[in-house]
Structures are given as structure tokens and as C-alpha cells.
Design a protein that fits this description.
With 144 residues, the protein is mostly helical. It has a domain of 92 residues. Helices cover 58% and strands 7% of the residues. It has a two-stranded antiparallel sheet with strand order 1-2. Helix 2 packs antiparallel against helix 3 and helix 3 packs antiparallel against helix 4. It starts with 11 loop residues before the first helix and ends with a strand. This is DUF4190 domain-containing protein.
């Protein structure tokens, strides 16, 4: 090889300015691996779902305090529905809150009816025995 065949090579900075200035230059290579598409550019933050935090709070409250959790979950579901977003925790909170509220109402009705029958039994016994302190079958009744 002789020195006549060697031509001066432009520096990297010169080559990039030359390539970008030419209209027929190929596009600049991307940072992705060959054969794979480049990763989508994201802002890093997940999209905000209106009512999602409220839906989670409603679900937790539905387990602890069913009626309050039911109400909070309904509010969260309403906010999410207005935004057009699905809110699974709010839906679960509505279901759990409704079921546990119904169970609580049934238990309350049973407790009231049992209490009423017990009180009714005492009132009936006192009406038969009259005023005073009485002991019947090992049970002491104070009627007055």
C-alpha cells in the first residue's frame, strides 16, 4: 500500500454534521437491539385512576364497618364511572359491604327478637308472681 491510496478520514464530529446535512443520508440508528422495536417512551408515572384510593379504603372499611365501607365504595365507584375507568376495589367493596350489611341486619333482627322474648318472659312471670323478689327454679326475679 502506498500513501497515495490513503485518503484523510473525517473525524466523528465532522461525519455526523456531514451526514445530517445531506438530504439522502440514512436515519440515525436507534439504541434498540437489531430485530427489536424500541421501548415505548413513558413518563414513569402510572395514570391516575379517580377514586382508586377511595375504592381501596372502601373495601377495607367494608370488612371492618360494612355500612360505612359500602357508602365509601359507592362514592369511589361513582367517581371512577364518571371518569370512564374501571375500579375493581370499589366494586369488591360494594359487594362485601352489601353482604356484610345484610348479615348484620339479620343478626340485629334475631338479637332484638330473642331479647324481646326474654323480656316478655320476665314480664309474664312478674305478672303471675306479683311485686317482690322471687326465686323460681333457681332463677331470681325482682318484680316491682
Amino acid at each position: 500500500m502506498t500513501d497515495q491510496n490513503l485518503q484523510p478520514q473525517p473525524s466523528v464530529a465532522q461525519a455526523s454534521t456531514t451526514a445530517s446535512a445531506s438530504p439522502s443520508a440514512p436515519p440515525a440508528p436507534t439504541a434498540s437491539a437489531p430485530g427489536y422495536a424500541a421501548a415505548p417512551v413513558t413518563s414513569g408515572a402510572a395514570p391516575v385512576v379517580p377514586g382508586k384510593g377511595l375504592g381501596i379504603a372502601g373495601l377495607v372499611l367494608a370488612i371492618v364497618l360494612p355500612l360505612i365501607g359500602l357508602i365509601v365504595s359507592i362514592v369511589a365507584k361513582s367517581k371512577s364511572k364518571k371518569a370512564g375507568v374501571k375500579n375493581t376495589p370499589a366494586t369488591a367493596g360494594i359487594i362485601v359491604g352489601a353482604i356484610l350489611t345484610a348479615v348484620g341486619i339479620i343478626i340485629a333482627i334475631i338479637a332484638v327478637s330473642v331479647s324481646a322474648s326474654l323480656v316478655g318472659g320476665v314480664v309474664e312471670m312478674c305478672s303471675e308472681l306479683g311485686a317482690g323478689v322471687w326465686e323460681v327454679d333457681g332463677v331470681t326475679y325482682t318484680c316491682g
